[in-house]
């Protein structure tokens, strides 16, 4: 793919076949695929090959290189831009010619999906290895490698949602890392100051998509974009945020084990939040506690 497609975008002989919108946009279409390819080709493959005689060392290979795997997050974040460009140009003669020369049955889009699929395969591979490694050396590292890969998957998933936030006036990356994201029912109230009639009337909860960052809790409204199948995407319109250094929590709310309370600057604003399950509520409370304490 780097040679048969990406390099061909710089080939003067192929320029005539290339649609204008594709010119100088190989970094959008391919993201950081060259970086991923280089990492596997020069480093990770050799690392794995050194385990042929000692498969119990595979876990160590993953742990040793766990920081390098962050490059997949960058690739996945670029994927929506890449797909959008591909949809506009996929019928072009340029791609047909590249595919013909390579004698590929599948189009480029199938190969651009490979890094995303690879990421989910790693944890399956590690699970499979663990199944046959009950009481041998290296089992601890295998277990840790599996946790690291599952964490990476979650982190990629969370950051994929984050790039769909619209209407935030500022730089989201300044809020730190996304730790959790998900949909909740939310009731709001204001304990101090005059209570507005609309707050009293709000017995019906709002549906909000929450993003928990290291420094803030961001409230968004999820919007389904119109489009057919493949083109249909969700976006999250920003509503407001609470700085974590002024947040407090009450872990149990009367009447429903799935509810908890988030209050802000000495209970001036109070949000009753209902998760879909008790387990989900506990997972969020654990993460919030880590930040607060």
Automatic annotation (TrEMBL):
SMART domains: PH, RhoGEF
Keyword flag Phosphoprotein: yes
CDD domains in the record: RhoGEF
Domain DH: 1-159
Keywords: Guanine-nucleotide releasing factor, Phosphoprotein
Domain PH stretches: 177-293
GO MF annotations in UniProt: guanyl-nucleotide exchange factor activity
One CC-aspect GO term: cytoplasm
The UniProt record lists the keyword Phosphoprotein: yes
BP-aspect Gene Ontology terms: dendrite development; intracellular signal transduction
InterPro entries tied to this protein: DBL_dom_sf, DH_dom, GDS_CDC24_CS, PH-like_dom_sf, PH_domain, RhoGEF_Guanine_NuclExch_SF, SOS1_NGEF_PH
Coiled coil: none
PANTHER family linked: PROTO-ONCOGENE DBL (PTHR22826:SF146), RHO GUANINE EXCHANGE FACTOR-RELATED (PTHR22826)
Protein name in UniProt: MCF2 protein
Originating gene: Mcf2
């Amino acid at each position: 793919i780097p040679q048969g497609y990406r390099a061909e975008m710089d080939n003067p002989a192929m320029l005539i076949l290339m649609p204008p919108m594709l010119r100088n946009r190989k970094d959008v279409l391919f993201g950081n695929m060259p970086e991923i390819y280089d990492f596997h080709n020069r480093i990770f493959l050799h690392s794995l090959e050194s385990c042929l005689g000692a498969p119990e060392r595979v876990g160590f290979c993953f742990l040793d290189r766990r920081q390098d795997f962050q490059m997949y997050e960058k690739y996945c974040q670029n994927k929506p831009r890449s797909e959008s460009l591909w949809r506009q140009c996929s019928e072009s003669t340029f791609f047909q010619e590249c595919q013909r020369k390579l004698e590929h049955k599948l189009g480029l889009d199938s190969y651009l999906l490979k890094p995303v699929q690879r990421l989910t395969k790693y944890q399956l591979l590690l699970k499979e290895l663990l199944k046959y490694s009950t009481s041998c050396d290296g089992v601890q590292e295998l277990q840790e490698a599996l946790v690291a890969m599952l964490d990476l998957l979650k982190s990629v998933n969370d950051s994929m949602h984050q790039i769909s936030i619209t209407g935030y006036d500022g730089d989201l990356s300044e809020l730190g890392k996304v730790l959790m994201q998900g949909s909740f029912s939310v009731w709001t109230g204001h304990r101090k100051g005059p209570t507005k009639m609309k707050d009293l009337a709000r017995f019906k909860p709002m549906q909000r998509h929450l993003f928990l960052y290291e420094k803030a809790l961001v409230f968004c409204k999820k919007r389904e974009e119109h489009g057919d199948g493949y083109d249909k995407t969700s976006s999250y319109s920003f509503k407001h945020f609470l700085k974590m250094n002024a947040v407090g929590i009450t872990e149990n709310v009367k009447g429903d084990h799935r509810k908890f309370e988030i209050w802000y600057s000495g209970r001036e604003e109070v949000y009753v939040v209902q998760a879909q399950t008790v387990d989900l509520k506990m997972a969020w409370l654990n993460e919030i506690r880590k930040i607060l304490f």
